[in-house]
Amino acid sequence: MSSKDKDAMTGASSDPGRAAVAASYQLFEPRAYLRNNYGPPRGDLRQADGVGPWKLRCLAETFATGEVSGHSLIDIGSGPTVYQLLSACAHFEDITMTDFLEVNRQELGVWLRQDPGAFDWSPYSQRVCLIEGKGESWQEKERQLRSKVKRILPIDVHQPQPLGPGSSAPLPTDALVSAFCLEAVSPDYASFQRALDHITTLLRSSGHLLLIGALEESWYLAGEAKLSVVPIQEGEVREALRRSGYRVRDFRTYTMPAHLQTGVDDVKGIFFVWAQKTAA
Q1: Of 15, 20, 224, 245, which sits most exposed with the smallest number of CB within 10 A?
Q2: Separation between Cα atoms, residue 48 and residue 57, nearest integer Å
């Protein structure tokens, strides 16, 4: 455990629920998580109705509107994944990736540096290029993303200043992306709401939030770690966004088919939201 991770756990000690979540994540294994969710069968992108193509289409179609663009974007709780930024990277010049865990930040660094043994995201890059239909090669797509990611920072969404004081990320940012983070690190719905409030402080007025998350999930596996998730429904996500000062521009849901319920979690579905922060 890194000293920063220990400090974050210490900061959560006043809240037993948050402290339990932080402690459970010390067993998180990035490669096991990637195998479970981004290798076959969930990572089989040949099936157009699969969860992977669905997420990529949601993101690509939203960025294709041209409305979600600007100078800077922050990815909240990146985990060990990069697919959520493949369409974003053409629309922003400065991208910040973040995660609570040092092991995930290290995993991201391995891919960005193209170190030996990096996780192979090329099937996702190829699929995004196919969806976008711009004639771009997947190699060009990955080069563009690597060139746009300027920093990988620690984050704690349960702190009023999630990136800490004096962050090197440009603030307030033009857009936020977050995939499978808030519900997975919150012990209850109230914590989910507060976490959303906290990350919203990083976003400029009228800025955009693209949020992907699990519906009605209570746990998932990442190696030896069995992580608790706050089970949320569409109505609760909509209400949380309203309370945090957003206007929902698009809300889509995906029901997880039986053949993709593989025993690595109990997720029932996925949501995708495009929301815009209302003017102050």
Answers
A1: 224
A2: 10
- What would the two tokens of residue 118 be? 């990096």
User: Can you list the positions of beta strands (E) in the chain?
Assistant: 72-76, 94-99, 149-154, 173-179, 203-215, 219-222, 225-228, 246-255, 269-277
pLDDT at 280: 64
Distance set, CA 52 to CA 105, 124, 158, 229, 260 (Å): 22, 8, 28, 20, 11
Beta bridge partners of 94: 72
Q: Which amino acid, one-letter code, is at 177? A: V
Report the alpha-carbon distance of residue 250 to residue 235 in Å, rounded.
Answer: 14
CA 102 to chain centre: 16
Q: Which of the four pLDDT bands, split at 50, 70 and 90, describes residue 20? A: confident
Interstrand relation of 203-215 and 269-277 (parallel, antiparallel or unpaired): antiparallel
User: In Å, what is the CA distance from 22 to each residue of 4, 188, 266?
Assistant: 12, 14, 21
The pLDDT of 70-82, averaged and rounded, is 98
DSSP string, 2-15: -HHHHHHHHHHTTS
pLDDT of 158-216, one tens digit each? Answer: 999 999 999 999 999 999 999 999 999 999 999 999 999 999 999 999 999 999 999 99
* CA pair distance 188, 228, nearest whole angstrom: 10
Distance, CA of 8 to CA of 23 (rounded, Å): 10
Name the token pair of 81. 């994944």
d(CA 104, CA 259): 28
Report the SS3 class of residue 233. Answer: coil
Q: Is the pTM of this model over 0.85?
A: yes
